[in-house]
Design brief:
The structure holds 2 protein chains of 2 kinds. Chain A is mostly beta strands. In chain A, strands 2, 4, 5, 6, 9, 10 and 11 form a 7-stranded mixed β-sheet that branches. A 4-stranded antiparallel β-sheet of chain A has the order 1-3-8-7, with no helix packed on it. In chain A, a hairpin with a 6-residue loop joins strand 9 and strand 10. Chain A has no helices and 11 strands. Chain B is mainly β. Chain B has strands spanning 4-7, 10-13, 19-29, 34-39, 46-50, 54-55, 63-76, 86-93, 97-100, 104-108. In chain B, strand 8 and strand 9 form a beta hairpin. The termini of chain B are far apart. Classes of the chains: A mainly beta, B mainly beta. Chain A binds chain B through residues 35, 37, 44-47, 50, 59, 61, 95, 97, 100-104, 106-109, and chain B through 32-33, 35, 37, 39, 43-47, 50-51, 56-57, 86, 88, 90, 92, 95-103.
């Protein structure tokens, strides 16, 4: 079945780095754009970044541009989010999601907590 | 940057009642680019409506979307117990950019 599974979350100190992964299965990963969307505790959804199917184009929310980097390895059916210079406001559940204009498949999320 | 404002923040209704949720954009949005999601506690969001009015696969026909320009509506014709959740609208802009509204919680009255 179509599935996205995130991993890599955890507790990290401010200023440190973390890399999230999203493993895709059950569909042709290389044919789809992929997003990262986050949700701070008790808050709404915030779009973070998107990468097109072949990885050639990437777009970011202003709040993360320059600190977070989206990438993908189509040979491994995996999406990544490299998170550098982490701040308290990056604390959230991070979801990967499939699609371009809309997001039709979502993972279960991985939690990132930035705290000293 | 287009900002989406959802109203009301919370909707208190009983099962069987009709729910009408609003999503207003700060600038005109192509209807093709307006999307609705449902999120239950502890779960990932689920795609309900895309292109403003097209139901996603497996979504019951009690869910319907409408609207154009800056005003969009999600209607749940008769609330079932499983429909009590938070609903988000989302737009795709041509920059390109993506943005979510702040959500509407539909709670049991």
């Amino acid at each position: 079945q179509v599935q996205l599974v995130e991993s890599g979350g955890g507790v990290v100190q401010p200023g440190r780095s973390l890399r999230l992964s999203c493993a895709a299965s059950g569909f042709t990963f290389s044919s789809y754009a992929m997003h990262w969307v986050r949700q701070a505790p008790g808050k709404g959804l915030e779009w973070v970044a998107v990468i097109l199917d072949n990885g050639s184009n990437k777009y970011y929310a202003d709040s993360v541009r320059g600190r977070l980097t989206i990438s993908r390895d189509n040979s491994k059916n995996t999406l990544y989010l490299q998170m550098n210079s982490l701040r308290g406001e990056d604390t959230a559940v991070y979801y990967c999601a499939r699609g371009y204009r809309s997001m039709d498949v979502w993972g279960q999320g991985t939690t990132v907590t930035v705290s000293s | 940057e287009i900002v989406l404002t959802q109203s009301p923040g919370t909707l208190s209704l009983s099962p069987g009642e009709r729910a009408t949720l609003s999503c207003r954009a700060s600038q005109s949005v192509s209807g093709s680019y307006l999307v609705w999601y449902q999120q239950k506690p502890g779960q990932a969001p689920r795609l309900l409506i895309y292109g403003a009015s097209s139901r996603a696969t497996g979504i019951p026909d009690r869910f319907s979307g409408s609207g154009s320009g800056t005003d969009f509506t999600l209607t749940i014709s008769r609330l079932e117990p499983e429909d009590f959740a938070v609903y988000y609208c989302q737009q795709y802009g041509i920059s390109p950019t993506w943005a979510f509204g702040q959500g509407t919680k539909v709670e049991i009255k």
